[in-house]
Design a protein that fits this description.
Helix content: under 10%
Shape: globular
Number of strands: 28
CATH architecture: 7 Propeller
Structural class: mainly beta
CATH class: Mainly Beta
Number of domains: 1
CATH superfamily: YVTN repeat-like/Quinoprotein amine dehydrogenase
Number of helices: 1
Strand content: over 45%
Order of helices and strands: HEEEEEEEEEEEEEEEEEEEEEEEEEEEE
Radius of gyration: 20 Å
Distance between the termini: 36 Å
């Protein structure tokens, strides 16, 4: 190759954006056909690097439901468990319980990327927040009629703006949870909330029986989006960070549903899956069309074509509550 051409190619390649390295983590229980008194199979936190197998991290904990990370130091994870909120340092190697016996059945956790030390969790009796990395906690669900909260999210563009999903719909707060108002999906149990990585004003909420609800006004109001998953439980929704418009849904019965037009139309993509009971899914931020999905008590599966075909990825017999790609270094 001509040396001048080689230099031009090198310059062009160096100008291309480099995808941040990330690792896929999941909260999974591998207790299929478990018999009381037998040794508990590895359960809790698992991770998978781009080229390696799944590995169990930390200690056995079958009731682990959600995770988030410290954006200033992604090696610090926060884990919502049946018996409290854990901080796991060293990418999951050392765990510390941050809550007391007054809270149980944690469902979700969210770290405020704009407020160091601020962490929220949703649990069976409301929402709590810490502003000092878990030293002290404050209850935030005083304004909610029914306290059980399944999902909590922080608007990534506005510190203190929160969306919460519970038994009576989606609620929004603009004052760090001091006051709440209904934003939509009134009367429906919300199972998950997610904000688009491409458009901060686009939010989606999955429900138990009510299908999918969406917001185009920064979470202020939510409206029903078509008939996807109606009369079923939609456990998860994921935006593809590499492809605007592509969204995935995970549900009990529908399996994996994919939209290529921001939710206007949906296609079932379950070829290769042993059953259509899917609990969670996640798009790989560094590999377009790569998608992971957890099939209840079967395994985690991977697709290289946005769900059109599937193969086994690992953790046989598992049921994963949540999956999340976590960057290797801070932005």
């Amino acid at each position: 190759m001509d040396s001048r051409l080689a230099l031009v190619l090198m310059a062009l390649l160096s100008a291309l954006p480099v995808a941040a390295q990330s690792t896929l983590y999941t909260c999974a229980s591998a207790a299929k056909e478990y018999v009381v008194g037998a040794k508990l199979p590895p359960s809790g936190l698992f991770r998978k690097t781009a080229s390696g197998p799944w590995e169990h991290v930390g200690f056995n904990l079958p009731f682990l439901f959600s995770l988030d990370f410290d954006p200033a130091d992604p090696s610090i994870l926060y884990l919502a468990a049946g018996n409290g909120l854990f901080r796991a340092t060293g990418r999951g190697s050392k765990w510390t319980l941050l809550t007391g016996s007054d809270v149980t059945e944690l469902r979700d956790v969210a770290v405020d990327p704009h407020s160091p030390g601020t962490i929220y969790f949703a649990y069976s009796h409301g929402i709590r927040v810490t502003h000092d990395n878990g030293v002290t906690w404050k209850e935030l669900a005083g304004g909610l009629h029914r306290k059980f909260t399944e999902s909590i999210r922080v608007d990534r563009t506005k510190s203190g703006t929160l969306l919460a999903g519970g038994e009576e719909g989606v609620f929004r707060s603009e004052d760090d949870g001091q006051t709440w108002r209904i934003a939509g999906a009134a009367g429906w149990q919300i199972l998950h909330l997610e904000q688009s990585p491409h458009d901060a004003c686009f939010w989606l909420a999955t429900t138990q029986g009510g299908g999918l609800f969406g917001s185009r006004d920064c979470g202020k109001t939510f409206e029903s989006i078509g008939h996807a998953g109606v009369d079923r439980s939609l456990y998860d929704v994921a935006f593809d960070p590499t492809t605007p418009g592509r969204i995935g849904l995970a549900g009990w019965g529908p399996g994996v549903l994919i939209s290529e037009d921001s939710g206007k139309t949906w296609q079932a993509r379950n070829s290769g899956l042993p059953r259509t009971d899917v609990l969670t899914l996640a798009f790989d931020p560094s590999k377009p069309e790569r998608l992971y999905a957890s099939v209840h008590e079967e395994a985690i599966y991977v697709s290289e074509d946005a769900g059109k075909t599937w193969t086994v990825s690992g953790i046989d017999g598992s049921a994963a509550a949540r999956m999340k790609f976590i960057p290797e270094s801070a932005k």
